[in-house]
Design brief:
With about 230 residues, the chain is mainly beta. It has helices spanning about 1-20, 110, and strands spanning about 35-55, 65, 70-80, 85-90, 90-100, 110-130, 135-150, 170-185, 190-200, 215-230. It has a single domain (about 1-25, about 35-230), classed as Beta Barrel (Porin), CATH 2.40.160. The relative contact order is 0.21.
Amino acid sequence: MKNIFFLLIGLLLCLSANAQFNERPIINIENEDEALLNWGYYLGFNQYDFKFDYKNNPTNGDNLVSTSTGFNVGLIGELRINEFLDVRFEPGLFYTQRTIGFPGFIDERDAIREVKSTYINFPILLKVSTRRLGNWKPFIVGGFSNSLNLGSNEESLDDNESGTFRMKKNVFNWELGFGIDFYTEYFKFSPSIRGVFAITDELVPDNDPNSPWTGNLNAIQTRGVFVNFTFE
């Protein structure tokens, strides 16, 4: 994911420099941003992590999280407010996998929990852009989202005693990111990077209040990074 991040930054810098030093660019799709409503779609990558809130300092050390790169796909609906502000609705499907290592266990079957999540994400975002500079335009975007975790196991009667790590199905987040709109001859292409941070607790405690897996946890919250490539 770090390689993807630096690749995206390099791409943004190269494309920006190319646009900047072209003194008289041919203006592509000049009226692209004039419509009241705009539509598009996005593809991308994600990397999710966990933040743990402990009741007491862990005697065996903190829980460890191994992350992997997942994928994103979704649609875009955009409402133009003025030249610099747009409201965006970006429903999407996000697949990810995390592995939690619980210290203090001898048996690996007790120490390791694979957490596979499929989120349906519903963000409402405010996009703040600069004035268009030739065929490119930087922007920042931020707002709030509601995610439904289809792999939460919230209603399962089994818990970690049976090897099942449970999370709440409904999650609220805030999101913040930046990117650049590039105007090609036929469409607008927008690479961006965004952070997502859960506001609500996602932990479903084990049935035993003294569980060695969840007994010392007040809460767990998702945090992650999205790299999206948007086409409008």
